């Protein structure tokens, strides 16, 4: 029996959440979907997540929210990471780090599935070897789930491609996040792992990686730091739809998702001409690159 997983790329700020709120019903209308996995590490003002935003994503229908290198950006997320089995931090952080790196759940269609999230090491914050970490996790999961979806949150494409080949035959899908730029290399590897190097960004594409382009350009040209506000326009939902067999866990297809959301739908009253003011959770943010 076919099992379909919708994998959503990095959701950036309130505009990204609005894009997802509009786009998910459209995608679910056109495709039967058993589970939705979304990267939420940029959902709170562009960096981190908060409990209310996690609840918002869950209310939209997201089954599992994954995080990356900004996992602890908002301190109010730490208790939620400890308590919830639907919010994941990178597996290859220290064992003492709050949260869990993998989970096994049952889909609404009644099939168990696992989600694992990993952090790359090239041009990223220090982390343990993701290859050894995922091998250990798969041994712990054992026969609890045939359907296994692995996120590689990494800067380097080589880290992601390497993980795809490492897990071919052992995972239903291996997908990259973090760069906010969707790649066009989706394919099913020889032993049945669906693969794509990066799902892309769910959010405002009028800026630079989801941030206002004039702020980013000013910082890189002048060398002076500034707060990188989230952009607002040209909203898109990016990700991939994977079809896998419930008995074997092998994928049979992967299709890129690239859905443009008209401003009139995302902002029903009127398309914003200026960026929204920072959300309350942004008040303690330090200056940070996108």
Please tell me about this protein's structure.
This protein has seven helices and 14 strands. It is α/β, with parallel strands linked by helices and 290 residues long. The protein has one domain: Metallo-dependent phosphatases (Purple Acid Phosphatase, chain A, domain 2), CATH 3.60.21.10. Strands 1, 2, 3, 4, 5, 12, 13 and 14 form an eight-stranded mixed β-sheet that branches. Strands 6-7-8-9-11-10 form a six-stranded mixed β-sheet, with helices on one face. Residues 280-290 have low confidence and may be disordered.
Specify the CATH class. Answer: Alpha Beta
H-E string? EEHEHEHEEEHEHEEEEHEEH
Number of strands: 14
Work out the oligomeric state of the chains in this entry. Answer: single chain
**Average pLDDT metric:** 92
Number of domains: 1
Unreliably modeled segments: 280-290
Cα end-to-end separation:
41 Å
Q: Identify the CATH homologous superfamily.
A: Metallo-dependent phosphatases
Number of helices: 7
Instruction: Report Rg.
Output: 18 Å
Instruction: Assign a percent range to the helix content.
Output: 10-25%
Shape: globular
Structural class: alpha/beta
CATH topology: Purple Acid Phosphatase, chain A, domain 2
Strand content: 25-35%
CATH architecture: 4-Layer Sandwich
Quick one: biggest sheet?
8 strands, mixed
Q: How are the elements arranged and paired?
A:
Blueprint: E1 2-8, E2 10-11, H1 13-30, E3 35-39, H2 51-60, E4 64-66, H3 78-83, E5 87-88, E6 102-106, E7 112-119, H4 130-141, E8 147-153, H5 157-167, E9 173-177, E10 187-188, E11 194-196, E12 201-204, H6 213-222, E13 235-245, E14 251-261, H7 263-266
Parallel strand pairs: 1-3, 2-12, 3-4, 4-5, 7-8, 8-9, 9-11
Antiparallel strand pairs: 1-13, 6-7, 10-11, 12-13, 13-14
């Amino acid at each position: 029996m076919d099992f379909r997983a919708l994998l959503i790329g990095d959701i950036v700020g309130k505009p990204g959440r609005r894009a997802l709120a509009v786009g998910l019903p459209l995608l679910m209308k056109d495709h039967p979907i058993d589970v939705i996995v979304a990267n939420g590490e940029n959902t709170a003002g562009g960096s981190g997540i908060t409990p209310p935003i996690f609840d918002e994503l869950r209310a939209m229908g997201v089954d599992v929210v994954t995080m990356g290198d900004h996992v602890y950006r908002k301190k109010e997320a730490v208790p939620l990471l400890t308590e919830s089995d639907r919010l994941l931090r990178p597996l290859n952080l220290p064992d003492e780090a709050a949260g869990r790196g993998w989970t096994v759940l049952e889909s609404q269609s009644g099939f168990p599935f696992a989600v694992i999230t990993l952090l790359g090491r090239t041009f990223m914050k220090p982390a343990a070897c993701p290859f050894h970490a995922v091998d250990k996790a798969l041994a712990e999961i054992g026969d609890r789930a045939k359907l296994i979806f692995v996120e590689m949150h990494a800067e380097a494409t080589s880290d992601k491609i390497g993980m795809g080949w490492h897990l071919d035959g052992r995972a239903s899908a291996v997908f990259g996040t973090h760069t906010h730029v969707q790649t066009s290399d989706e394919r099913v590897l020889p032993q049945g792992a669906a693969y794509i190097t990066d799902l892309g960004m769910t959010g405002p594409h009028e800026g630079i990686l989801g941030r206002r382009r004039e702020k980013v350009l000013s910082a890189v040209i002048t060398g002076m730091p500034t707060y990188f506000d989230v952009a607002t326009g040209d909203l898109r939902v990016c990700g991939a739809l994977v079809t896998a067999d419930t008995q074997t866990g092998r994928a049979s297809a992967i299709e890129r998702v690239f859905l443009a959301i008209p401003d009139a739908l995302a902002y029903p009253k009127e398309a914003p001409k200026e960026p929204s003011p920072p959300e309350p959770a942004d008040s303690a943010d330090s200056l940070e690159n996108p």
